[in-house]
Amino acid sequence: MEKIKYLTSDEIELNGILEKNNSSTCVIMCHGIRSEKEEHGNFTKLAKALNENNIDSFRLDFRGHGENNTDFSQVTIDGEIKDLESTLDMISNIGYKDIILLGASFGGGIISLIDIKKYSNIKGLVLWYPCIVYSDTDLFCVENLNKALKEGFFETKSMKTGKRFIFSRELMIQTTKYKPYESLLNNTLPKLFIHGNNDKNVFYENIEKCANECKNSKLFIIENGTHGFFDNQEHFKFVLEKTVKYIISIVN
Question: How would you class 31 by CB atoms within 10 Å of its CB: exposed for 0-12, middle for 13-18, buried for 19 or more?
Fold first, then answer.
């Protein structure tokens, strides 16, 4: 395990953890909003499973999250795209031949918005309970958007930790401009979607529809699965198994 610090194109210092096993493949893990690089333990477990299968991984804290020093009120979609692009540049410069992008929740939307034409070494996407239609989520619904437009911000708290977060007007406005769903439809890379049909935060119907409309995609809907699969270890064991198997199938 190697801790790495690096700068984004707009001079934000990021940090992350590289799990090395002398592989030519690296999975970049992108956490959800209000989360951090371990994704409440899900990414930690995935990194271990990948390492056991001789695949390297890197998990980062986006700006405003985890160990990053940027205030959360400065978080935007634009900023997270810059964070991921800088991460891709850094990981590519290390020499990885194959990169898989894995995004959970809000991170799933961010990996969907990356311009894949700029990175020939991106070989596929994995989307866990991804946020790809912002307006059809509990956080970015029209009610919260209107509140941010009126008051300048929208305040919420983490369902896992209870910590309070300020969603800026700019962040909320950007959710009306960016369209991860449409970006995925134009993306020909292999894609794996995994979602629970009892997810109260990100509605699974959009994921099912997108996966069916996308080229080169595979979908697993988990019966009674919730957002993050935190309350059912058997569900997450299934997610790990299918994810690792899918990544191996892409890069081998």
Answer: buried
Residue 131 · residue 32 · CB < 8 Å: yes
CA gap 224, 252 in Å, rounded: 32
Lookup: tokens for 141: 């619904």
In angstroms, the CA 140 to CA 155 distance is: 12
Confidence of residue 157 (pLDDT cuts 50, 70, 90): confident
- The model's confidence at residue 123, banded by pLDDT at 50, 70 and 90, is very high
Number of helices followed by number of strands (H, E) in the chain: 8, 10
Q: Which two tokens stand for residue 33?
A: 């909003």
Distance CA 208, CA 213 (A): 9
Is residue 95 exposed (0-12), middle (13-18) or buried (19+ Cβ within 10 Å)?
exposed
- Reported pTM: 0.97
| Ordered domains of the chain (ranges, CATH) | 2-134+179-251 (3.40.50.1820)
CA pair distance 57, 47, nearest whole angstrom = 6
CA 227 to chain centre: 13
Flag whether pLDDT at 76 surpasses 70: yes
Beta carbons within 10 angstroms of residue 91's beta carbon = 23
Strands 25-30, 56-61: pairing is: parallel
